[in-house]
Amino acid sequence: MGKHIKIFDTTLRDGEQSPGCSMNLQEKIQMAKQLELLKVDVIEAGFAIASQGDFNSVKEIAKTVKNCTVASLARALPKDIDCAWEAVKYAKRPRIHTFIATSDIHMKYKLKMKPEEVLENAVNMVKYAKRYCEDIEFSAEDATRSNPKFLARLFEEVIKAGATVINIPDTVGYTTPDEFYDFIKTIKENTKNIHKAEISVHCHNDLGMAVANTLAAAKAGATQFECTINGIGERAGNAALEEIVMAMHTRKDILDLYCNVDTTQIMRSSKLLSTITGVHVQPNKAIVGNNAFAHESGIHQHGVLEERSTYEIMTPQSIGLSENKMVLGKHSGKHAFEDRLKTLGYHLSEEELMKAFEQFKELADKKKVVYDDDIEVIITRNAIENPQ
Ligand code: KIV
Ligand code: ZN
Questions:
Q1: What residues form the membrane-spanning segments (predicted)?
Q2: Does the pTM of the predicted model rise above 0.90?
Q3: Is the ipTM of this complex over 0.90?
Q4: Which residues pair with 72 in a beta bridge?
Q5: Backbone phi and psi for residue 166, each to the nearest 5 degrees, phi listed first
Q6: Residue 226: CB within 6 Å of ligand 1?
């Protein structure tokens, strides 16, 4: 069966912090319902104190969602935690997610606090949140640029104070898979009571390694992955949920991880988010890009038509698409052309086929993509010129 990983979706919180991705109340509720269908374990519904709109969204999502834990983010401040609880308390399974930065850079320049003050504050705020609910996640912002010994001491204390989940964010997308693995190992070795909390990771994609770092963390003992649909999020975004989940699904043989996500809801979730935000994914985006299951070259098309596993490592159906796509262009061969003709209902003689194929190739040299309408024109024109 492998190791079970909990999927913590933060599309509605960290994802929404992506430029152009803000959502209104109704849109957030719709997205939250889709995340429930996708079967994520935790929905981070927002940052309740950030605005009245965010507060209302967290509250309504908490009331609506029945099968996932619903979390609200809160800085390590009493007023944030009070507000998070006021919004999230309606959830069947509420979680308060509180955080404070722990790297020297953040402590010195942003918080203007000494490490000991940060530690004391973290402990006090976890205790404060614990008065409200059982499930408390604590995040050490900019963890990967923090002193691991200090972090371990801080984690030890917040676990004693009642934190149930310890989150290790790579806030600025700075780490690499090997380094992150070693970092988490060091934290584990130096935190006596680490087994009393769940280890979570939260990776940003500034160097394009968010998914790789997330998966490397599992090897070191992480059991919760934080991610967003389409990888939206601050700057270059967060680890993409669809990539993490399909990597676990497709490479179970080496990763040996599984989660509860219904992969057939992935495409629907991706499309819904793009429709709501108006932010579309790039065509070559892994898993959900328009070209992720499209084949253009003749060699690939021939291979896939004979046996799909020649060039497809997962099925389009597994993410909720009905079919793969054969894009007809200048690299396409006769097999794919003939296959498309059959789909369109044409059964040509060998001579007719050769003529149409030549005309198709001529057209493909001039156009990026040859559409079904173009093929219809070729066949119809030939039929008119050479009536049977
Ligand atoms: O990237 C980050 O550090 C965060 C925390 C608030 C978890 O989003
Ligand atoms: Zn983040």
A1: none
A2: yes
A3: yes
A4: 46, 96
A5: -110, 115
A6: no
